[in-house]
Please model this.
Amino acid sequence: MPADPSGLNRRALLAAPLGLAACERFASVPTSAGPLAPPLKSLAPFPIGATGMTGQLDDPVWVAAMRRHVSQITPEWELKPERILQSGFAYDFSASDRMVDWGHDQGLRVFGHCLVWYSQGLDVFTDALPTARFAAEFDRYVSTVAGRYRGRMVGWDVVNEAVAEDGDGLRDCVYARKLGAEAYIVRAFQQARAADPDAVLFLNDYNLENNPRKGATFLRLAERLLKLGAPIGGIGTQSHLDIEIPAGQIRGFFRDAAALGLPIHVSELDFPMQRDGGRMPDLRSPAEKRAQQVARVGELAEAFMALPARQRFAFTTWGLRDTDSWLVREEGKNRPDESALLLDARGRPNPAYQAVADAFGR
Ligand code: 9MR
Model:
């Protein structure tokens, strides 16, 4: 079994005072001394989601924050193949059951992430496996997992991150090699549909706003898959935003995406202040960077709000408070001072919060 990232998260929580101090580097944040943020779910006429992990369920502060702010939960790790799928194609549902039960006990909608992901399941789904066995195990995995939670999930990311990194075509992966580049995706959707007729089934990917070429490839892929008979019920844009992209680019993606007519899930929103890789030295003040961040998050929230109501599936952030983010964790980006979410470490509004509230008109 892989290391439990929720255990690491616990360590991050224990280290919170340090992270908190570093976080105050962006201390021009005028709200940092203010009261708790008003409930995020009160801002919107559509579901507001955030991630959760088993390691957080025993933390009363996190639980209170989730109860206050969200109407939907996406288990961040427990429903993935890397957690459920064991050697010899055995399954372990102990963590996934706990998350789904907890979400329902709290009266939340539970969103499933994810059934098929090019980077997972690779210990057992290998090129060496005879194709007939590969196909049978693939079908069994998707239908068993989706079927186990039949009627209990509001939706599933059926296939995650199918488009190539740079947006040039589809990813090469073992699933594509064994079952066909688009055929494996169609197959996964059909299996999921048969196993859970009511869940909305999503094609989910990232960098769709950050990289217009990838956004376009993704939307054309969704169109082709629909023509091939894949029961795609919605499209998920992870929205790990690059805050430096030009104004208008996010709006452009949402306009093109809306034309498909499907519900859209902002499925993993965050908006890091720090970029990957060595770029030009950044001479801007923290306040200028915050303004850049707020502008892009505001554009995204406005673009989502501009969708017809029936196309606004949900608005989900990847973590609730800054300290809940994968970006601060060791197994994520290991940046303890990152501030990439709507709420600060203590549950007060970050500057982007108001931009979202304004966009949602509350
Ligand atoms: O945040 C998740 C992290 O805790 C896990 O270790 C990692 C691998 O399972 O996945 C992270 O979540 C990713 C999501 O599943 C897909 N899009 C990118 C997310 C951040 O890496």
User: Anything to note?
Assistant: The radius of gyration is 20 Å. The pocket of 9MR is lined by residues 5, 76-77, 80, 82, 160, 206, 238, 268, 326, 331-332 (CB under 6 Å). Confidence is low (pLDDT under 50) at residues 6-31.
